[in-house]
Design goal:
single chain, alpha/beta, 2 domains, five-stranded mixed sheet, three-stranded antiparallel sheet, disordered N terminus
């Protein structure tokens, strides 16, 4: 559901790669020619199942490169695959390859360079690359790459260059965290993930990057069920340490439900980006009840995969990088509720211990 780097040529080497890419034309900039009609979901499903980019053999060249060099415009084959996925999911967008301009590339480079370098060691084998398109229909997209036995072993990440270019960190986070709520008079929600001094586009990109890296980190692990299988098809014998802290499987309904649904009814109606189901008047009760769960953010409560990815992003951002993370809700311009990151609190202690083990927490401490 992104990118990585590990070689110690990261700062200078990545800058060189990004500068070179800035002067190369993106392939496939026109409307892609697809093997399936816009409404033929069955065709899209068949084409994706057998598509080359979903197989690790197609990424041998990328995997032979330093992980920080696996970045650039999406290939025609990757563009086709993303378009097929949009057809399968009923999304109207038809992405095409894009080449970020020099300023955006510099911000992506800065976002990567500012992350704790030890993080990149986790992604050398898992990340096949970070690629750019236009017209994705969202900010980022991460998908499995499979081995010969159809086991997920790696992932690629795709970003919409135009979406990344639009907003500073706090503006982006505020927009995102408002998407589950329909507007209502008097209510406002503001998200703060950077200080005023560091509130820039580069740091918006960095947080988006961290979330997608969380998805990549889960590949090939038992943290949560694979996102490409239906809940009812998850093996009953499997144990998922991170998932089991917050989720259960309703096999009859073929859904994942949280362990907190009875006391947190707003969760079932929390939908990000498209089709808000909650009113802005629900902001305060939703966040008050969220505080009685072990979800570090409202977005984490939407799916098991996003629970881990958002937990990873928030943990690295707050604990390792010492950045702010806060939601403030106002009613008639008066502060009505404040929600802070949960790291260091009892409610998130078990998730924090899992993240510490995964990241080798002591290696980040000086």
């Amino acid at each position: 559901m992104i990118d990585a780097m590990q070689e110690v040529k990261k700062a200078s080497g990545l800058l060189t790669v990004l500068v070179l890419l800035a002067f190369q034309p993106a392939s496939g900039q026109g409307a892609p020619k697809l093997p399936c009609a816009d409404t033929d979901k069955a065709c899209a499903h068949r084409a994706m199942k057998n598509h080359a980019v979903a197989r690790i053999a197609a990424w041998k060249t990328a995997l032979s490169m330093p992980v920080g060099d696996r970045i650039g415009p999406a290939s025609p084959q990757l563009v086709e695959y993303i378009n097929l996925d949009n057809i399968l999911n009923g999304y109207p967008e038809r992405p095409r390859a894009a080449r970020p301009d020099a300023a955006l590339l510099a911000d992506v480079k800065g976002a990567i360079a500012d992350l704790p370098p030890e993080i990149w060691n986790l992604f050398r084998e898992r990340l096949v690359g970070l690629y750019f398109v236009a017209g994705l229909g969202g900010t980022g997209y991460t998908e499995y790459v499979f081995d010969r036995s159809s086991k997920p072993v790696a992932a690629f990440v795709v970003f919409d260059a135009a979406v990344l270019a639009r907003q500073t960190a706090n503006a982006w986070a505020t927009w995102k965290e408002n998407t589950p709520f329909r507007s209502a008079a008097g209510y406002k929600l503001r998200a703060r993930i950077e200080s005023d001094r560091d509130d820039n586009r580069r740091n918006a990109i960095q947080y988006i990057l961290l979330h997608e890296l969380g998805h990549v980190l889960s590949v090939g692990t038992d943290l949560h069920p694979p996102w490409n299988i239906r809940p009812r098809d998850v093996a009953r014998s499997m144990k998922y340490p991170f998932f089991d802290l917050s989720w259960k499987i309703d096999r009859k309904a073929d859904k994942y439900r949280s362990l907190f649904d009875a006391a947190f009814p707003e969760r079932a109606n929390t939908v990000y980006y498209f089709g808000a189901k909650l009113s802005a008047a629900d902001m305060m009760p939703a966040y008050a009840r969220l505080k009685n769960t072990n979800f570090p953010a409202l977005y984490a409560a939407t799916t098991p995969g996003d629970d881990f990815a958002e937990s990873f992003a928030s943990y690295v951002h707050v604990v390792l990088m010492h950045r702010p993370w806060q939601i403030t809700i106002t009613r008639n311009d008066a502060v009505a509720y404040v929600f802070n990151a949960c790291w260091g609190e009892t409610r998130c202690a078990e998730k924090q211990r899992i993240l510490e083990r995964l990241l080798g927490r002591s290696s980040f401490e000086k």
